[in-house]
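Q: Here's a chain of 143 amino acids. Please give me its 3D structure as tokens.
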Amino acid sequence: MSGPHIVRSADAPAAIGPYSQAVVWGGLVYTSGQIALDPRTGELDPDDIARQTERALANLAAVLERAGSSLACVLKTTVYLRDMADFAAMNAVYARHFPGRPPARSAMSRAACRSTWRLHPCARSRRSRTCSPKVIAARTSTG
């Protein structure tokens, strides 16, 4: 591949502005943030953080799949939350989608999220359908 490859998935909400759902470049996939919009109905999941997290991560997985990747290959995520009080509920759902070897993550409050969106996750991933990252244990100080 000589330049960036633009990714469009029908199984995730279409871009609503001048941006791409994802871009593949140099063996990495860079995704735009996903919201809890059902791509088939165009409806936003109810104002429930757990359900919105499930839907947003399903949308993210669909974009990654179209790009030739998967949630298992995600290296880093950024999750913008409308309210940090939603963190624990979001984190419980997130943990089910990233079991065992979770990616690096930043999570922060973003008051500028539309009032109906409770979260907005995005990711960077290795372009591969099968990933088995190694876990590097923390070193302990001996002295």
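Q: Can you summarize the key feature?
A: The helical segments are 49-66, 87-97.
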